[in-house]
Amino acid sequence: MSVQGLVEKLRLVSKLMLPSRMLKAFPPDFTLRRPLVSLLDKRIRRGDACYLALFRWEVPAAHEPLCPASTLRLQALTRTLLKELTSEQLLPRELVGLDQFGPHEYVVIIREAAERGESFVPPALFRKLEMLKHALEVSVEGSMPGERVRLHLTGTYVPVSLPLHQQDATASERLHEAYHFALALATRQVTPQVLAARRQLDQILQDGSISVLAQPIMNLRSGDVFGWEILTRGPAASIFHLPDELFRFASQSKLLSKLEFLVVRHALEEIATRGIREPIFLNITPVTLSHPMFLNHMLQCLERHPGLSPGQIVLEITERHEVQDLKGMADILDTFRAHGFRFAVDDAGSGYSSLQWIGELAPEVIKIDRSVIQFVDRYAVKLSLLRAIVNAASEMSCEVVAEGVEREEEADVLFKLNVGMGQGYYFARPNVLLHEHERDIFQETKRRIQHRRGQVAS
Asked: Is there a single domain that holds both residue 207 and residue 346?
């Protein structure tokens, strides 16, 4: 045996002696134990809610597959970056472990302590994984600029600690089931698990068992609540609790419009019940907006609630769903506008976003994606992009909402650029819709906005 081989064998033996908690990240393959399974089993026995997120690299169909050397380089780079980025984005107590399950598949297991009394992943952890995905994409793009690969965060929040089919499964069986379900969702395979999920989605649509939350959109000049974005949640303790998986799976199942029709009806009922007077922002995909019955559905819902009007409704079109026929979509928007509805372009600065896209549809509101806002105070490129969008919006007489504001420094940049509105955890978290007399909690936010704006201006 060579000296190098002997050194490697000694390293492996030394790792065999380490406890599982010290082998969270990409442990070597042991014959006698699997550290990730041991760590997961410990969390399940404590009653913690554990969830699996699958990060999967994909080469677009139009491009040549990666050569073996590039594949090996991507694998090594991804493993190194995931170790670094998970330590930055996740607290030690949140990370159960991470491992590579296939040539381009990487699993992150996270947990939420049982004492919080929640049976689903909180939005804060969801956001952390989204930021982890974004940071990984940017880092790999910078390190391998010639390769055309895309990273998907798929099968998100499969409840490892709540097995889909059996309550007495071992930790190893639950991990295996959760991974293969996530992989099936990512690759659009039809498996028994996917069929079971489809039946669950059908039941959700039949029973109308969704709920809505609202996150305030703050006026950054006055500090008052300008409006509310409606956010959808599926049943608690289900794989469809958070909207990411709910809407993705509905889209794959050709049930997206049916789900969005239900969301609109449910949201307007909640808004009317609580006497909300400010503008309401409803997320709508181009698929549903183009549905021949959607306008009629909106008008019928409003007829049932005389206190509401089309002028109060702002329909957010997400730019993550590409619009092929801009002229046709502009005509559809004009038809809705004739009834008084207004429109916002969501996710400006991400994916398919372009100033041309915004110019063609002429929205009343432009919502700037959180990927632009995050750490905008630190990156000159992001600041330039933000400034360009704000200037373009001013030329088109559009209102601007900056999404995903989480830090005071980010808010200060918005004040300096005279951005009209902001939304994010820095101002307020999503919550149930509140009656007007219940909104004292926003007075402190108003004072903070006015104070910081005065500080920046001086």
From this structure: yes
Task: Work out whether the CA dihedral 381, 383, 386, 392 comes out positive or negative.
Answer: negative
Exposure letters 433-455 (e unless 16+ CB within 10 A, then b)? bbeeeeeeebeebbebbeebbee
Token pair 């994010």 in the structure block, residue:
424
CATH code at position 256: 3.20.20.450
Residue 80: the pLDDT is 92
- The pLDDT tens digits of the residues spanning 126-136 come to 667 777 887 88
In a domain, 182, yes or no: yes
Q: Name the pTM for this structure.
A: 0.76
Structural domain count, the chain: 2
In a domain, 6, yes or no: no
* 301 and 203 within one domain: yes
Q: Does residue 166 sit in the same domain as residue 201?
A: no
| Whether residue 114 has pLDDT greater than 60 | no
Overall size of the chain counted in residues: 458
Under the banding of pLDDT at 50, 70 and 90, the label for residue 120 is very low
Query: Is 360 inside a domain boundary?
Result: yes
pLDDT of residue 169: 77
HEC secondary structure over the chain? CCHHHHHHHHHHHHHHCCCHHHCCECCCCCCCCCHHHHHHHHHHHHCCEEEEEEEEEECCCCCCCCCHHHHHHHHHHHHHHHHHHHHHHCCCCCEEEEEECCCCEEEEEEEECHHHCCCCCCHHHHHHHHHHHHHHHHHHHHHCCCCCCEEEEEEEEEECCCCCCCCCCCHHHHHHHHHHHHHHHHHCCCCHHHHHHHHHHHHHHHHCCCEEEEEEEEECCCCCEEEEEEEEECCCCCCCCCHHHHHHHHHHCCCHHHHHHHHHHHHHHHHHHCCCCCCEEEEECHHHHCCCCHHHHHHHHHHCCCCCCHHHEEEEEECCCCCCCHHHHHHHHHHHHCCCCEEEEEEECCCCCCHHHHHHHCCCEEEECHHHHCCCCCCHHHHHHHHHHHHHHHHCCCEEEECCCCCHHHHHHHHHCCCCEECCCCCCCCECCCCHHHHHHHHHHHHHHHHHHHHHHC
**321-365 pLDDT, tens digit each:** 567 788 899 999 999 999 999 999 887 766 554 666 787 888 999
Domain with 352, as residue range(s), is: 196-457
Model confidence over 154-174: pLDDT tens digits? 644 556 665 555 556 788 888
